[in-house]
Sequence to fold (111 residues):
Amino acid sequence: MGKTQKIMIGVTTTALTLGLTGCGSSTAELPPQPTDQECRDWDWDDDDGVWVCDDSTSTYRGHYFFGGRYYKDKNSLLKSSDYMSYKNGSSFKGGSQTSSGFGSGSKSYGG
Fold:
């Protein structure tokens, strides 16, 4: 194998490794979208590390969703001791979620 071939293999391997690493970045770390039937369109709020309902037909549009509960606005979310424990704990890393404190658990409506 010639010097040019070795260099090309090294460049290709590096490019593939970097490409695959980039593909699995933040999206793979997000918790699953809630499966609550009250909202069928969700946006991830990277700053707060929670899902936000973006369903224009839902009465919960714009509501934050955390721990199986809807919060009508950011202030309501910030009043939640569970959310503050999550945000101040090791599972929240500047918008990156590493544990699974989400889901469609029992439904109640924060406010």
Q: What stands out?
A: Residues 97 and 103 are 13 Å apart (CA to CA). The chain has four helices and seven strands.
